Amino acid sequence: MEAVIYCRVSTKKDTQETSLERQEEELVKLAQDHQYEVAAIIKDQASGFELDRPGVLELLDLIKDETIGAVLIQDETRIGRGNAKIALIHCLLKEEVKIISQTHSGELHLSESDSMVINIVSMVEEYQRKLHNLKIRRGMKRAVENGFQPHKNLKNKGNVDGRERIEVPVEEIVRLRKNELTFAEIAATLRGFGYDVSKATVHRRFKEYMTSVENA
User: Fold this and answer.
1) 198 catalytically annotated
2) Cα–Cα distance for residue pair 13/136, rounded to 1 Å
3) Which of 10, 122, 198, 212 is catalytic?
């Protein structure tokens, strides 16, 4: 299994280079001890309270690869400090990536308070997903009840003269708006039918339409 080594020091002082080199050397050995193949070694010289670190952004990209099974760190403070630490650990665990700590000679052991916070964050995210899906279903139901017929607007739904998915059905936006759906509900409804639109786009297209009608 492959792993990523992540090293961090807090400043860009030359004296910190030695610490980075030591972390790398120790974590390479840790990878060998746990039979991980090192896919990448990332080094950051930045405060642990900051999320905007080049190495962190690279790390988050790498863990999307299913071959990456673990991230090796010296200790949890190398990932980050404060809220940044909690956020990054949550991102890693959500991708089902193990966090191997040299301090623990194996998987990172979180404190009871940190574990509680991460569990709460995960629970909130799950309920947000459920609410989002409920909102889409509600919007789709209301749209269909009010005459929206998506199969007549998409080419890959059987109508060769219909619109492409990337286009926005302005007439449907106007119709749904007249039926008192909010712009957020309209956007969620259209996304459910395959249109890649945001609330802002829906609002903008509606305003453009109304302006054109007024100027006609």
Assistant:
1) no
2) 51
3) 10
